[in-house]
Amino acid sequence: MKKTRAVITGVQGWVPEYVLTNQELETMVDTNDEWIVSRTGIKERRILKGENQGTSVIGTEAVKGLLKKTNTAPEEIDLIICATVTPDMPFPATANIIADNVGAKNSFSFDISAACSGFLYALTMGSQFIETGMHKKVIIVGADKMSSIIDYQDRATCIIFGDGGGAVLLESTTEEVGIMDSMLHADGSGAPFLHMKAGGSRKPATHESVDAREHFAYQEGSTVFKFAVTNMAEVSAKIMEKNGLTADDVAWLVPHQANKRIIDATANRMGVGPDKVMMNIEKYGNTTAGTLPLCLWDYESKLKKGDNIILAAFGGGFTWGSIYLKWGYDSN
Ligand code: UT7
Q1: Whose C-alpha lies nearest to ligand 1, atom 35?
Q2: Which stretches of sequence are listed as region ACP-binding (predicted)?
Q3: Residues 117 and 68 grouped into a single domain
Q4: How far, in Å, from the CA of 49 to the mean position of ligand 1?
Q5: pTM exceeds 0.85
């Protein structure tokens, strides 16, 4: 009997309209366009403005667009998983809010917190609900409103992050396409280098915690950078080796968009040339769980059925991993 796999049958991204440029950041903190571009590759990022606008806005717009372009009725969806570190609120899950907004009345839904690797974790988990035969249509959302946890007085973090995200539809197939393999990792000893100090159960919000600016993302950039370069490159090379793939076999690398220098190191380690690397960091910055679906969305028109694609990410936790998939459809 042929193996049942989960295959991506559609992708849709969404970013807010407001563009925060390096030039505008120059007026907010002691930085400059040359430093930001040379150290990160980022020129601008999007910011979700307005009252009561949470990550669910990003997820809802992406899922609405996805349902429309794949001609899927919301009632057909069995499950929505949302990867995010900036949920609308600690509970209920942002995935529940998205499901309600789009009318996915027959689905159950939950969030996954794995920072920049969240989309990889959620895609792996969602594909297993399909492989078991338990569900037919699963939506994976990766979305973050990073501006809600960024200190715009901290030049080391505010230049990197942006808001945005995307969603993919997973369905079952017995063809030789879809999610072929996944390697996921976590190391909680990385927490001191990338975390939010207050607002959780260990240190609930107080006037003091707000005054101390502890409700923002805290990052020791150069330490995270070193771990990211090593681990993202290593896991990407390992998944190729495990599946007998050479650099020539790989059509696309889809790397987490945290820093162009981390992306280049990963591509080099894999032996993959820049023409095969999806990159949109210059216009969106680091949208945490949003970067991978946003890349797939931007490059969708170039993808061909059967393309070997390697997704890779590294982020808070630490968490990191890689997915090997074969693209399921010709986009044109
Ligand atoms: O997606 C989640 C995982 N996160 C990542 O993967 C991020 C990994 N880290 C990075 O991408 C980089 O570490 C950063 C982009 C955050 C920082 O780049 P860096 O090359 O590691 O810089 P650094 O932190 O080592 O700082 C170098 C210098 C320092 O000045 P001194 O001490 O050498 O005088 C910083 O104060 O650059 C200074 N600096 C800045 N200068 C201008 C730091 N931020 C800025 C800035 N503008 N925005």
Answers
A1: 156
A2: 257-261
A3: yes
A4: 26
A5: yes
